[in-house]
């Protein structure tokens, strides 16, 4: 998988996941294709790219490609600029049967939400593997 950003870890992914949480350091270089046309002269990381980073981290944690069934409760609170240092944290949410995520930077919370995988790992299964968003 080719990533359009850099992802690093302070601890091995497996050891952190055993505690119900994984965390990664993220940096999106200025020349990342994600910034192409979004927006000329004022580059901002698109929201779909942020959700893609969450999905990539979960796939890495489970060591396989997994479809997304649903994304909910997403809040974009700040813009992400090129070269900004980010921390992506994903926690299991056993009660909801999904994963809660947050992206933070030097100025605090950037994006939060929940993501449900379609393979049943989260306690709920979307058998058709479709992607949907919900407002909650």
Automatic annotation (TrEMBL):
InterPro entries: ApeI-like, HotDog_dom_sf. SUPFAM superfamilies: Thioesterase/thiol ester dehydrase-isomerase. GO terms for molecular function: lyase activity. Pfam families: ApeI-like (PF22818). Gene3D superfamilies: Hotdog Thioesterase. Residues 18-113 form the ApeI dehydratase-like domain. This is ApeI dehydratase-like domain-containing protein. The lineage of its organism: Bacteria, Pseudomonadati, Thermodesulfobacteriota, Desulfobacteria, Desulfobacterales.
